[in-house]
Amino acid sequence: MLERLNQVMERVESRLDQSIDVAELARTAATSEYHLRRMFSALAGMPLSEYIRRRRLTVAGAEVLDGREPLLGIAVRYGYGSGEAFARAFRAVHGVGPGEARRTGAALVSQPRLTFRLTVEGSSSMRYRVMDRPAFTVVGLKARVPLVHSGPNQAIIDLVRGIGPRTLKSLEELSDQEPHGIVAVCDDLDPGRAEGTELDYYHGVITSAAAPEGMTTLDVAAGTWAVFTTSGPVPQAIQELWRDVFTQWFPSNPYRSRPGPEILRTCLSPDGAEADAELWLPVERDQGGGF
What pTM, to 2 d.p., does this model score? Predict the structure, then answer.
C-alpha cells in the first residue's frame, strides 16, 4: 500500500544532498521503476524528478538565505556542476537568483514534503476486468501530440477532424479484435507524465489485416491488460477514470503498470457531450507486494 511510497519519500528526504537513484527507490517500494514513476505522477500531480528538484532547491534556498556558506558550495552539494547552472535552476523555482536572494532577503518558494494517505470517499465501485492477450496490431493514422491532463487536447482534435468520413469508415471495417471499432491509442508516453511532454497518438483499430496505404502500424506484444469502463461527460469522465485508476485501483490491487500503449474506446452520445468509455492499460502482477 501507500506505506511503501512514504518510505520512498523518507529516502528522498535523507538524500537531497546526494545522488538519488530511482531504481533504488523502486526497490524500496518493492515495485518497478516504471510503475513508481507512474504512481508518483498520478498521486502527486508532478513527475518524481520534478519533486526531487523542487525539494533540493527548497532546502538550498534556506541555506542561501542563511548566508553562512558560499553559493558555489551550496550549488555543488545539491548536485549542480557550476554556479551558473545552480543560478538558472534556482531562478526557475524561486523567481530570483541566489545572489540577489541573499543580498535582499527575498521571499522564496517552498515545496512541502509529501506524505501520501489513502482517503475513502464512498464512491461507487470501479468496474474492471483483467485479461491476457496475445500479440496484436494497431492500424491507423499517427501524430506526435502533447500530453494534456485536463480539458480537450487540441492536437488530437485537429488530427481526428482531418480524417474524412470515407477513410474513417474503411478503417472501422478493418476492426476484428477487442476492443472493437475505432480506438485512441497512446504510446511512448513519458513515465513521469509531465504536462506538455509528447506521446505517439494513433487513431485506428485493432486488426489482423494489413495496413492500407497511408496508414501506420503499431505492433503490441502479448501481455496482461486491465480494462476499465466508465460513462459521463467528455472529456472529464475519461480523464477522471485515468486518475482514479492510479490513485485508487493500483494501490488496492496486486498489479502494477508496465510499459506499453494505452487504448481508449469511446461511444459518444448523439450530441457528443457524453460517452461510454473503455480504457485498456498494460499491467503485470506485482510480485513484491508494492503498492
Answer: 0.75
